[in-house]
Amino acid sequence: MNFTVTPGMRRLCASVLGMEAIVLALIIPVAIMVNGVAPAVAVTVGVGLALACVVVAGILKRPSAYIAGSVVQVLAIATGFLVPMMFFLGVVFAVLWVTAIFVARRVEGVT
């Protein structure tokens, strides 16, 4: 399968991952204070996924980064087990991720 990475796709996907990194970092205090999650777990998950977003955003020139970004989306949805609202927000970011890929490819004329 030939997956062509376009400049627009990189920009849109990097924007999604950047905003997602902020949200994932902000679940740390909510998980600890509101939901009573152990601080070590909340920090590990929040910081780990936020860093994963930043790293993936930095390697979006490679087609394999889009697989990694999709894995991050699944993990972001799974953070709903720590902060239930993340089930919803994770799905929103996953939809934005998929939309960024397909809209950019369509606008730039890639089939």
Automatic annotation (TrEMBL):
What parts of the sequence cross the membrane? 12-34, 40-60, 72-104
Which keywords does the record carry?
A: Membrane, Transmembrane, Transmembrane helix
What InterPro entries does the record point to?
Answer: DUF4233
Instruction: Identify the Pfam families for this entry.
Output: DUF4233
Q: Which domain of life is it from?
A: Bacteria
Q: What is this protein called?
A: DUF4233 domain-containing protein
